[in-house]
Amino acid sequence: MKKNYLDFEAPISELEQRIADLRHVQDGSATDISNEIESLMKKTQKLIKDIYAKVTPWQITKIARHPDRPYAMDYIKNIFTNFRELHGDRQFADDPSLVAGLARFIGYPCVVIGQQKGRDIESRTLRNFGMSKPEGYRKALRVMELAQKFKLPIFTFVDTPGAYPGIDAEERGQSEAIGRNIFAMAQLEVPIVVTIIGEGGSGGALAIGVGDYVMMLQYAVYSVISPEGCASILWKTASKAESAAQELAITSARLKKLGLIDKVILEPIGGAHRNPEEMFNSVKKHLSEALRLVSELDGQALVEHRYQRLQNYGSYRLGDQFEHFVDASRK
To answer: Which residues pair with 216 in a beta bridge?
Structure first.
């Protein structure tokens, strides 16, 4: 399968192409060049590690959008068992950009919800590039209410550029659907574990992002607006997106420091797309730990903890220092 490379990965692309060429030569030659191939592979690994050790917020945004990055359905298929997808919001239609259903996690019944992007023209059109309409969020709410009814934990996987901004979505109450989900999730008396796996864009992410424990992959992004959108407002041109990404607190390390997320899940060298299997195993381990932590609280305690969590967001400037209001348990 043809690999997709980002612009800053050009040196990696060149080395890996050389390795592929040498392997092709070796297949049809009696000369043993395995040592040279091995040397180039080690050089490539070191190069990947060096490049990814100093990626900028804008480069991280590109990694979060990488077309080969694992999507919600990939995590669901590789982490959960007995997944049964539920369709429709019982009001208007089914929205394929948001998948939701019942499953088992390490043997225990649960509810899983995720935003799904497509990998080719057909699936991207079907999934609307991961941008949900009101019926998608209402479907998610319907499934979350099932979780409440049967006392099942909820796992959500956030990966969206944002809620769909089309006229039809606005006509059917896009903002109301997002607001209702946030309001409802804040009051659910079951554990909610949120994982941001790619893009966490604005209200589209918040509609399934209110949780007791929020995790974020190392090269995911989470923001109130995309860098391009921010640049268009501040500088009147999307070409300043790199500057906007630098100013916005969109990276996992920055958000963890601000106390807006609880955990950063490290990715394989070169990003989740380079070793999906390792990424699935890591996410599964962290989901298990997060569920164990939040399951210790009863329903009312979960709601109170969620409320206090939201109330503690924010910071103020004191001279050149920032003081942050965060839970003592998350410092």
So the answer is: 196, 264
At 261, give phi and psi (nearest 5°).
-130, 165
Q: How far apart are CA 208 and CA 6, in angstroms?
A: 29
Give the CA distances from residue 86 to residues 94, 142, 195, in Å, rounded to whole numbers and listed in that order: 9, 10, 20
List, for residues 156-199, the tens digit of each pLDDT value: 999 999 999 999 999 999 999 999 999 999 999 999 999 999 99
Q: Which CATH number fits domain 61-330: 3.30.70.20, 3.20.20.510, 3.90.600.10, 3.90.226.10?
A: 3.90.226.10
pLDDT of residue 105 exceeding 90, the answer is: yes
Query: What does the domain layout of the chain look like in residue ranges?
Result: 7-54, 61-330
Nearest 10 degrees: Cα torsion 219, 224, 229, 234: -110
pTM for this predicted structure = 0.90
Contact present, 172 and 133 (Cβ < 8 Å): yes
Lowest mean pLDDT among 7-16, 105-114, 281-290: 7-16
Reduced to 3 states (helix: H, G, I; strand: E, B; else coil), residue 197 is strand
Spatial distance between the Cα atoms of 125 and 81, rounded to a whole number of angstroms: 27
Measured in whole angstroms, the distance separating CA 269 from the mean position of its chain's CA atoms is: 17
| Cβ proximity of 76 and 103 under 8 Å | yes
Alpha-carbon torsion (96, 101, 104, 105), positive or negative: positive
What are the tens digits of pLDDT across the range 56-71?
999 999 999 999 999 9
Contact call for residues 100 and 140 (beta carbons, < 8 A): yes
